[in-house]
Amino acid sequence: MKIYVLAFLALSSLFFVGCSEAEAEREDLHFYVAGHVCGGPNYITGGLYQPFQAYFDKTCKDKTIDFGVFTGDIVHRCDAPSWMLIDQAIKKSPYKVYFAPGNQDLRDGMLYKERYGNGNQHFEKGNCLFIIWDVIQNGWNVSNAQLNEFVELTSEKEYDNVFIFVHQVIWQNPGFTPQIIPNDTEGRAPVSEFYPNTIQALSQTETPVYLFAGDVGAMPMGSELTIHQYKNLRFIASGMGGGKWDNVVDVTVKNGKASVNIHYLNGNKPMNIDKHYVPILF
Questions:
Q1: Burial of 175 by CB count in 10 Å (0-12 exposed, 13-18 middle, 19+ buried)?
Q2: CA separation for the pair 252, 13 (Å, rounded)
Q3: What is the torsional sign of CA 258, 208, 194, 120?
Q4: Which end of the chain is more exposed for a tag (fewer CB within 10 A), N or C?
């Protein structure tokens, strides 16, 4: 009997140690998402939009930040001198900055690819999946290959959250999301496949999915920030350049749960949006 008790205690000890180690391995995360960092049409001096550059300089002193994501229209002109200014502006960053390229960034697609690689990529950090999609080539539509990759990745592993970054506000629809006013509709296909196909595929998983876009805010039109929700999906369009409601999205993940705050570049108090998403009904 003593042998069985000792064996049980040993196995129980290994079980709890294993659980403790698994919990200890879960990494808290802190990152931000910035859209249209080149600024509005009246800001064409090159480099980062000055109000965002000031914000960026502060983040370089914040040791909690793991990385940043620029959600497109990083430059006004897609040429080597413009990209050199961007590189110089962010080179002092102690953390990595990812690019989700916009239409302005890909006007010379070969140049962009030579400097920064493919517009599509994914990576894992903590127990979260991060996906960057170039949707310009498909007329603002997510390709079958991109959706298949999403399904495959989320089927292979149970993530705490999935974060997807694009440039265009691909869920914009006059009937379903009238609050959204994109900066432009350049390259948009006549028919959007988002509501017939994409939203259905993304909502098949029970994992919280956050979809970010950055093609808003170049002008002060009241659409510098919009937040929507459908089932497990949360849609956040955020950008800058208009000078009035310029903002950056700040995301933290603690014990697997994500929380989203909006940081305004005009000095307004940060705002938490976790309970304020507008339902999409269709």
A1: exposed
A2: 33
A3: positive
A4: N
Q: Is 130 exposed, middle or buried (0-12, 13-18, 19+ CB in 10 A)?
A: buried
* String of DSSP letters for 178-220: TT---S--TT--SS--IIIIIHHHHTTSSS-EEEEE----SS-
Quick check: 98 and 165 in contact, CB under 8 A?
Answer: yes
* CA atoms of 250 and 68, how far apart (whole Å): 9
Count CA within 13 A, CB hemisphere, residue 14: 5
Q: If pLDDT is split at 50, 70 and 90, which confidence band does 26 have?
A: confident
The answer to the question of residue 70 being in a domain is yes
The Cα 163–Cα 209 span in angstroms is 6
| pLDDT attached to residue 25 | 64
Identify whether 46 is part of a domain.
yes
Residues with Cβ within 8 Å of residue 10, at least 6 apart in sequence: none
- DSSP-assigned letter for residue 269: P
246 is a domain residue: yes
CB atoms within 10 A of CB 204: 14
Is-contact 81 176, C-beta < 8 A?
no
Question: Do residues 106 and 78 touch, judged by C-beta distance below 8 A?
Answer: yes
Whichever domain contains 271, its CATH number is 3.60.21.10
Domain that holds residue 54: 27-279
Please return the burial class of 262, using the count of CB atoms within 10 Å of its CB with bins 0-12, 13-18 and 19+. Answer: buried
Q: Which residues contact 112 (CB under 8 A, 6 or more apart)?
A: 78, 101, 105, 106, 119
Type and span of the H or E element at 59: helix 50-59
Task: Tell me 274's DSSP state.
Answer: T
Q: How many separate domains does the chain show?
A: 1
pTM score of the predicted model = 0.91
In a domain, 6, yes or no: no
pLDDT at 259 > cutoff 60: yes
